[in-house]
Every structure is written in C-alpha cells, then in structure tokens.
Amino acid sequence: MSPTHDLTRRRLLGGALPIVALALGAPARSADRFAGSPFRALSDSAWRARLPAASFEVLRREGTERPFTSPLLNEHRRGRFVCLACGLPLFESGWKYDSGTGWPSFWRAIPGALGTKADFAIGVERTEYHCAQCLGHQGHVFDDGPRPTGLRYCNNGVALRFEAA
After folding, report:
1. d(CA 93, CA 81)
2. Which of 7, 21, 91, 134 has a CA 20 to 30 Å removed from the CA of 49?
C-alpha cells in the first residue's frame, strides 16, 4: 500500500468516527434552557436594587459569607431552597445535611438547576456552581459528601431563600 493510499484511508476512517458515535447514541450537548432568561439581562444597578448587599456580593461578585452566620443553617422544615435572586428551585429540604462547615450543605441538587465552572480563585481548582437561570453564584461542590451521591454542595445561605412546603 502506498503512503498516499494509507493517508487517504486514515482520513476516511477518522471522518467516519463522529458519524458512528452519533449513530450509536453518543450524548449530545444539551441546549441552555435558560438562555433567554430576563434575569441574565439585568445590569449591576438593577441587581443592587433587587438584592440585599451581602447577597449581591455573593450572587453577583462570587463572594462568600462568613461561616455559621446563615439562619438557613438551622432550617429543618419540609420545603425547598430556591435561588434568592430569581426564585429557581435548587434543593429539596430532604437533601440538606449538617456538614459541619458552617454553610448550608446538600448532597443532591434539582436536576438542571445548577451550572458549574472551574474556579481557581484561592490557587487550587474547585468546582463553582451557580443558578442555571440567573447565573448567580451559590457555592462550591466537593466530593466529600454523604451517600448516595458522595457530593457536598456547600451553599452560601445569603444566596438562598427557603420556601416551606
């Protein structure tokens, strides 16, 4: 076989791989269901008018509240925890647990409610998560949580509102 023939065959096979993957049901990237959210178009001044100062710093500037200061740390009623900025439900109360960290913590999130990104703000990589609808910073997720997920969504209480069932 000539080198030219071999190169052509490689190109053909390489080009066919994405088609084969699609045919076998390879997962496709899902569309952002909140892309047209009016919350994403709000200016900083509009957010400042809507949010308490501490909540603005966390939700819009990716700040962190002091540990053990959130009244939601001791919230144990049935209900949901929603994004303070836009009201999107993020966590069910049954998924909350005491992580000992001083922030409300959850072992599971409502599917599709959160987005994530890499965060290197303290010099090491962490996974930041935010509300999928308004992109408001909520906290960081770690892999040291309880079963069944092993996850710990460590949330800023000032970024949440509790809605009793």
Report:
1. 7
2. 91
